[in-house]
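Narrative summary of target 7.
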Amino acid sequence: MSPILLAVIIVAAIGLIAGLGLAIASIVMAVPVDEKAEAIRECLPGANCGACGFSGCDGYAAALSKGETTDTTLCAPGGADAAAAIAEITGLAAGEMIPMTAVVHCKGNNVNAENKLIYSGIESCKLAIQVFGGPKSCSFGCLGYGDCEKVCQFDAISICDGVARINPDECKACKMCISECPKHIISLIPKEKANAVVLCMNHDKGALTRKECKAGCIGCMKCVKNCEAGAISVINFCATVDPEKCTGCGKCVDGCPVKCIYMQGNICMVKEEENVL
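Modeled conformation, tokenized:
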């Protein structure tokens, strides 16, 4: 027998034995497939954002299938359609989902906010904040380097004149931008309810805030006095609105001397204003 033919036979035999071994191993070590979890997984959008509180879509589907949770409304990107589909598969109640959108609580654009230094490093909020809290004088404001924009899977975020802005029509409330923002100035608000929103999270005293940003909340209390529903409070020199109490009357918006309060439906106007500046 020629050496070449012998080598071919040996290699073929090794391949056959290895193939049989892998086939047997795949049967012995096979992981049972959870068909219900697979069906639920097909109902989810695949964003793997973690907004549901589980390790992505697979984790949420497995939890629903195993009965670890009975809440079908945890998938914000999937919305009511996903909740209804999950309910049909699991037999659970679909529940009611309130459409939410993320909002950036800052008006400190390149015109309103002063700079204390020139930053020339990598354009990343997480890196820029390491240099004396970032280039802007306001240590609470948006740095505008787009870390939130980079993680948004739905193209809902854009940088307008140095500040991140979120399109509520595209936002799926996945919370990835909230987790990514090193300044912690992004939150979720209801899409449909006409709430007032304070676009500032500066907690310095009013006089210092005015030096840092022309549109920063100075804690003047005028919004508190104008609010008949008692929905506004000033905590550490910055106003906040309780969405549960807010009636959407707009009196706080009209009375704000620095114009840092907007009605939820008009926040998109901020983006247009900043593009004009």
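The mean pLDDT is 89.
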